[in-house]
Amino acid sequence: MGGDVTGKTIVPVVQSPEGKYHLNFQGQEFQQVSEKELPSLEERVKNAGLYTYRISESEYEAVRSDPKKISALFDELMVERLNRWASLAEEHLRPLGVKCYWTGGNDDRQDIVDKIRGGDHFVNAEEKVLRLSDDHEMLSLGWSNPTPWKTPRECSDEELAAKLEPITKQVENPATCIFNLHAPPFDSSLDIAPKLDSTVDPPRPVISGGQQVLIPVGSTTVRDAIERMQPLLTLCGHIHETKNSMTIGRTMCINPGSEYPSGILRGVIVNLVKDKVLSFQLTSG
Questions:
Q1: Which of 5, 17, 31, 227 has a Cα-to-Cα distance from 100 of 20 to 30 A?
Q2: What pTM does this model have?
Q3: Which CATH architecture has domain 125-284?
């Protein structure tokens, strides 16, 4: 799991005194929802990467007017969701002998990431080099270079290099190593995104000739590390719009993209031998 694992929005599920519920999801108002109808609707919201929270009308008014209460609720829901994933991983992956390695991304607050329970089968790989098999190590870093959104875990490319350099020194054999880096390499076709005007809040796409202007927004630090060390494989994310693969020298680089607001989970299955990528398949579901 390559980062950006926490949601960005709470969808209040407000209960009227008569016992019915109402909520707003993706611009659509749902009114007079019954207790029986609610679970399937809540599942749709959760599958889109959002949080639901059942609350009475009186409580809703009290919470919405208090930024501290909203912030505390957000913290509670983020930690609860990720720790639930950790429990599910331990329950379902342990019998299979499979491990899920995960990191936060630039959108994920460090204090929230630090509160997630680890386990033998839900492993926080952040800023580590972990041995996946006799043949392969994996280096992971979930921070990104700067964005117009001023996210919690972004920094300058110079600072990113300072974070990445000591981790790369732990790699025993770069030729068989997997780089699991949230930020894609700069100007690689894995990092193409709309150019944004950050002089307004929120930033908005720059339009020229009636079309969005697209630019590379990846990390020069990541690109430099790949060119210098030539790992076997680089897995990245961060730029949700760009689902693509390419090579830098001998290194296969893949960004599976993301469509989480639509409830679609994108990923990639990569088949490896010791020093070769045999094949890969982009997945969605």
A1: 227
A2: 0.93
A3: 4-Layer Sandwich (3.60)
